[in-house]
Amino acid sequence: MARKLTTTNVGKRCMMLVALFTIHCSLFVSSAAAQKFALLDMDYIFKNIPAYERANEQLSQVSKKWQAEVDALTTEAQTMYKNYQNEVVFLSKEQKKAKQDAIMEKEKQAAELKRKYFGPEGELFKKRTALMNPIQEEVYNAVRDIADLRGYQLVLDRASDTGIIFGSPKIDISNEVLRKLGYSN
C-alpha cells in the first residue's frame, strides 16, 4: 500500500532529521573538544639551532659568489653592447653581425649560468636541500616524538602564515622541541 504524505508525516520526518542532525553535530563537537593541540614557532626553533644558522650563512655566501659570476657576465655583455653602439657606424655588415652574435652569446651565457645556479633545480636548490633537509628532518622527528608522547593530534606552526590570531603560550612546545634536540634555552 502506498503511504499518503500528510502534513503530519512530513513534520515528523523533518523533526527526525533535525534530531539526527543535532546528535551528529554534538558528537562532532565533543570529539573535536577531546582532541589536543599544540603550537610551535619554527622560526624561533631554527634561530636557536647553530647548525641551521651556519647553513644559512653558507648558502648566503655561495649565493653571493654565484650572483657575482652572473653579474660579471651580464656586465660584460652590457659593455660589449655599449661598444657596439659606439662603433656601429664604422662597421661593415659582416662585422655588425659578428658583434651582435657575440653580444647575444654573452647574454645567453649569463642566462644559462643564472639558470644553472638559481633555477628551480639549480645548484642553490640542491645545496639548500643537502644542508637544510637533515636539520628539518631532525626537528620534525622531535616534534613527532613530543606529539606522540603528549597525545597531540595537531601541531601548528605559529610562524607560518596560517591565520592564527592568538595561541596560548601554555600550548607552545617550541622550547620543549629545542630541549629534545639538545639545545637548552
What can you tell me about this protein's structure?
It is a single chain. The chain is mostly helical and 185 residues long. Helices cover 72% and strands 4% of the residues. A two-stranded parallel sheet has the order 1-2. Helix 3 (50-87) packs antiparallel against helix 4 (93-118) and helix 5 packs across helix 6. The relative contact order is 0.15. Residues 16-20 and 24-32 have low confidence and may be disordered.
Give the SSE layout.
Elements: H1 7-34, E1 37-40, H2 42-47, H3 50-87, H4 93-118, H5 123-150, E2 154-157, H6 174-181
Parallel strand pairs: 1-2
- Weakly predicted, low-confidence segments: 16-20, 24-32
User: For the terminal residues, how far apart are their CA atoms?
Assistant: 77 Å
Strand order of the largest sheet: 1-2
Bin the strand percentage: under 5%
Overall number of strands: 2
Question: How many strands, what sense, and barrel or not for the largest sheet?
Answer: 2 strands, parallel
Structural class: mainly alpha
Shape: rod-shaped
SSE pattern, N- to C-terminal: HEHHHHEH
**What is the C-alpha radius of gyration, as a whole number of Å?**
32 Å
Counted by DSSP, the helix tally is 6
Task: Tell me, rounded to a whole number, the average pLDDT.
Answer: 83
Please state the oligomeric state of the protein chains shown.
Answer: single chain
Please give the share of residues in helix: over 70%
